[in-house]
Amino acid sequence: MCGIIGYVSERDCCGALFEALRRLEYRGYDSAGIAVLGEGGFRVCKKRGGVAGLASFYAEGKTGIGHTRWATHGAPSDQNAHPHIAGKIALVHNGIIENHAALRAELEGEGVRFLSETDSEVLAALVQKYYRGDLLAALREALSRVEGSYAVAVIAEDRPGELAAARYKSPLVAGKGRAGLFVCSDIPAVAQEAEYLAVAGDREFIRIAGGEIGFFDGGLRPVPKVFFRPEGESRAAAVCGSHMRAEIAEIPRALQDTLAALGKADLAPCARALRSAGRVFAVACGTAYHSALAFRDALARDAGVPVFCYSAGEFRYSPPLVRAGDLVVAVSQSGETADTLEAVRLARGLGGFVIAVTNTPGSSLAAEADFTLAMRAGAEIAVAATKSYNCQLLSLWYLAAELLFFRTQRYPSWFSSLKELPAAAEAAFSLFPEADRLADLFKERQGMYFLGRGEDVCTAREGALKVKEIARVFAEGLPAGELKHGPLALVEEGFPVILLSTQRRLAAKCENAAAEVNARGGYTVLLSQYEDVLRQSRARAALRLPVLPEPLMPCVAVIPLQYFAYKMCLERGLDPDRPKNLAKSVTVE
Ligand code: M6R
Q1: What confidence score (pLDDT) does residue 584 get?
Q2: In this structure, are 365 and 438 located in the same domain?
């Protein structure tokens, strides 16, 4: 989605805005822009394309706003890029103004002429309409007319040194950095330089003026805030060439840190909630949904507890299933995914007890859940989720094991092996040369399948998602048993089929799938930790995974697939940190 930044500095803020936008770019890279308030009014530069297009722009001024756009209303273009200027007001916005058409018609009727097709310019004009010297009051009045979601920052030509901002359903933080006081969409974008910051709650307002940051509720009454110092973003990307590659390299360390954090967590409230829970649900989107599938498998297998696992976007529109006391586990790296948040609001509204599993303790999800299990993957910048997935698996297994202990007074047999995950993840890196070879072999293919059974299905789905997203190759992840119910029709000479076989009880069944693919000329690649399974297979290539208890294999089996997707992306001349049409944090529906 879009990224917004605003600064009120003691010196020129243009450079700081540009640097923050470079860090925010993973939220959207369709267009970017900066407005700086200087002696002669606003100086604006906004362009279609990435933030690099603003590199030559410089303007003097201590107050400014910036934006990096993921287009919703209006194509990526210079005109549709933010900031939008309306009279004395400059505005940047992330979110969607749902009633923009009616507001636009009203304002046009009053003589306003719009330069862009965006919903955001309508909001800028609305703030201008209500502006009589009090920026915060004008923003509040404008937003009272708006339906939709927003993180918005505004500055006024006649109010240097002042900025007003607000949020509803789109993330926003404010704090103090080396370059001055700021508002920003995301903590990682300012983590390197922030001395302290605080997170705005929904329907809260922020005013920066007179060298101070104030938070206010909807009635503009002051809201006390806890400010904290965020963790810095890893610098590994500079060494590895891309965030995605760096984040794969960080998996062992991320698992280690998450293990340490889990060891300190007191899960008693979760266990108590399970005692009264009629049923257990898991909700998440994308990669996080795949980790929720693994949670479902663990609780069903080890505790005999069925888990109703939903894609959050489906859950929120399904008949209201949750009953008072039910346990709902919501998984989200960012903690800002709109569908997951809405699912949580729905579940809580129905009386469910919500456990958030997130990488972002300051997120909206953490704020709205009854209990937060914070993993410690560290900032994940690449759009493709990698290390956060491994840490989600670890956290969810840990949670499942604690819930099992609560019910039966015993931990599952694999529990003590969770501490082996960091070393096993590192050992999986030895498969990268073979993944390199396969990426080279398959780089021209138009499609591929990832198959698995039982605990391997989540890995198959996640491998396919990574290839689709990063390498832009059609890929489908399926239970292997589904192959002959339709997908086999596409298998032809050389068609790649990546087959996961880490569960001994299912190995023979997986081998059937390999045989069916081979018989049609497909190119089967088998991943297993078992030497004999690999040796006896008819697969054309074999990757020997590190050995762990079978229930934990998804955490290591996915690593060569994450890397394979990354390498396919490079082989196809694409940028792994900028998958087409996607943004890191999906804060709109
Ligand atoms: O921040 P979240 O975990 O809630 O994000 C959910 C999905 O948007 C995300 O996992 C997405 O599928 C990944 N970018 C895929 O790599």
Answers
A1: 72
A2: no
What is the whole-number distance in angstroms between the Cα of residue 325 and the centre of ligand 1?
Answer: 28
Q: Does one domain contain both 54 and 85?
A: yes
The identity of residue 11, as a single letter, is: R
Q: Is residue 221 part of a domain?
A: no
Return d(Cα 148, Cα 523) in angstroms, integer.
48
Asked if 192 and 302 sit in the same domain, the reply is no
Write phi, then psi, for 354 (nearest 5 degrees). -105, 125
Do the beta carbons of residue 38 and residue 82 sit within 8 Å? no
**Paired residues of 36 in beta bridges:** 43, 64
Rounded to the nearest angstrom, the distance between the alpha carbon of 284 and the centre of ligand 1 is 9
Residues 472 and 525 in one domain: yes
| pTM reported for the whole predicted model | 0.75
Catalytic residues: 2, 584
What atom in ligand 1 is closest to the CA of residue 337?
Answer: 4
From the CB of residue 101, how many other CB atoms can be counted at a distance below 10 Å?
A: 12
Helix (H) or strand (E) holding 144: none
Mean pLDDT of the chain: 92
Query: Which residue from 170, 243, 310, 333 has its CB within 8 A of the most atoms of ligand 1, so it is best to mutate?
Result: 333
Q: Is the minimum distance from the CB of 568 to ligand 1 under 6 angstroms?
A: no
CATH number, position 174? 3.60.20.10
Q: Give the span between the Cα atoms of 58 and 34, in whole angstroms.
A: 10
Residue 233 within any structural domain of the chain: no
Same domain for 19 and 156? yes
Residue range 15-30, pLDDT digits in tens: 999 999 988 887 777 8
Number of domains in the chain: 3
Which of 412, 447, 468 represents a domain boundary (last residue)? 412
Give the side-chain half-sphere CA count within 13 A for 326. Answer: 24
Rounded to the nearest 10°, the torsion over CA 390, 395, 396, 400 is 140
Q: Is the CB of 330 under 6 A from ligand 1?
A: no
Asked whether residue 227 is assigned to any structural domain, the reply reads no
Q: What is the CATH number of the domain that holds 553?
A: 3.40.50.10490
Longest dimension (CA), the chain: 79
Residue 467: domain span: 426-576
Token digits of residue 181: 């006081």
Can you count the helices (H) and strands (E) in the chain?
20, 23
Residue with the bigger pLDDT between 238 and 573: it is 573
Please tell me the chain's helix, strand, coil percentages from 3-state DSSP, rounded to the nearest 5: 40, 25, 35
Can you spell out the DSSP letters for 317-368? Answer: TS-----TT-EEEEEESSS--HHHHHHHHHHHHTTPEEEEEES-TTSHHHHH
Q: Check whether 236 has a pLDDT greater than 70.
A: no
Tell me the one-letter amino acid at 120.
S
Q: Are residues 192 and 294 in the same domain?
A: no
Answer left, alpha or beta for residue 161, where phi above 0 means left and psi between -120 and 50 means alpha: left
Residues 470 and 364 in one domain: no
235 vs 388, higher pLDDT: 388
Ligand 1 touching residue 9 (CB < 6 A): no
pLDDT, average across residues 62-87: 90
For residue 228, being part of any structural domain is answered with no
Residues 380 and 437 in one domain: no
